[in-house]
Predict the structure.
Amino acid sequence: MSGAAWHARVECGREVGAGFLVSARRLLTCAHVVRWADRAPVTVTFPGRRELGELSGTVVVHGGWREGAADLGDLAVLELDREVPLTPAVFARPGTERTVPVPELIAYGFPKGYDEGMLASYRALPGPLISDEWVQLEAVTAHGQPLAAGFSGAALTLADGTVVGMVSAVAGARDVRVGRMLPVEVMARYWPDLGELVPTPGHRADARRRLYALVRRAEESGLDCDPNRLYVSAMDAFDPPLPEGGFGSLREAAAYVQWEVPDPAAVARFADRLTERLHAPPDPAPRPATWSPIVVEIDRSGAGADQVTVEVSAYRDGRRRPVGSRRLARGAVRSFVQERIDEAFTQLDPGADELLTFVLPREWLNEPVAHWECGEDDSTPLGCAYPLVVTDRYRHRSGRLRHQLHKKWRRLGSGTGGTLHRVDCGTRERPAGLRKRLRDDAELAGFATPPSAAPEYFEVGLNLPVPVLLWPLRECPGEEGPDGRCSGTAFLDELAASVAGVPPAELPRLVMELRETADAAEVPEEHWARDVQLLWDDPRCFAEPPALLHSPVG
């Protein structure tokens, strides 16, 4: 161990533990060792290089460990007050500690009375991680130094001195000869930067170094790049889908590709996509969403099950201008709407951004209006020609919901989009639980199935002031595809990546672009976005009270 001067002793308040150097100024240790860092100084010394004296350390990364919270996330990164002239630790390949024959692991810690340090010899038990977090350690012999207090944060090394993990839990009594280790792949969950330092099975070292060099370049240049979209664009059908909640940074996404995607080529693909973004011209500034709606309002007529009343209006300068109204058989609605939409455009301001809005009774919400053709001589789907949304007739007329939606949209402003609240296939969540989840902060809710397949969940979403609801028109058959996902899950995964970071006010334009992409695909019917239905409800676009449809009486 004399050649490994990177071993460190860490002291903070009443706690004494170990640590190990991973760069000229950064050191890894356990979060519980520096639990008093907010009220006591952190002091670091290197027993192998006493002439360096005492150094001050600052906690710059914390894994989230809290006392009494199952000890998860027990990792901290310390930044020293100056660089030290020491060669940092070198990491072994993940999992090396559990190969057969199981190798002996050495820890260098600082139990009470041994400020210069002591060595302990342990082996890792093969098998699954405990709580998906720890490897269990057992002493090699019944004698010798146990992992007592003072070993927390110590590197566990192989015979060649490479590091396989860090001691995170030590024995509570001297005759107990077990402990726990955080393996390097778990440590990287809490500190993604570690991925750059660790050799990963199947991934070439040059590909890994290139990936993290690009990530640093993107961070330094302030590149505006959505890590969720980048991940989805780089993965193929057999790679893991976007994890729930997505990624908070490019570095987090890069670490996930390195550790969780088994395809060795995934790192290079992700790096290639990032290179393209770095060399791409900057995105134009987003246009403000100043929509001028053309509204198609459909309701039951009261004159028979097959009869409906249809009214088409256009909004200009905040005022509604009626275009046409008629009572029709359901089969005649499409041609009437096609004609009146074309006429409604003459009522819009020449520079207006048109928004085609279908106000539908609840049983019509899954009507594929985005697939309707523009007209007899134009087969372009309406949803590819214009930003097209639907809304529920009850929501459109409810004074309570319009008031609550006004407040919600004012809070949203022009900010970036929020988290997509998912209602997955086969969910066992009670409708009351969904109501509680969506009531206060939900901006977008995504359903894996159409309204008819989960009416109790859609009723919750429609009767709450959630500004945006999205779902597929086709019901999920429940069968898993080649990638192990059913079509409903795949739809929500793709949707979450597409809407991430997009202001809710811009979603009608985004969904139009997605529909165009699907329509232009080699097999449009197989593209996930072909059947996306967007319920988008901003009462500010409809300054006047909703129009009263003509009565069928008289």
Observations:
- Confidence is low (pLDDT under 50) at residues 545-554.
- The radius of gyration is 30 Å.
- The CA atoms of residues 21 and 62 lie 16 Å apart.
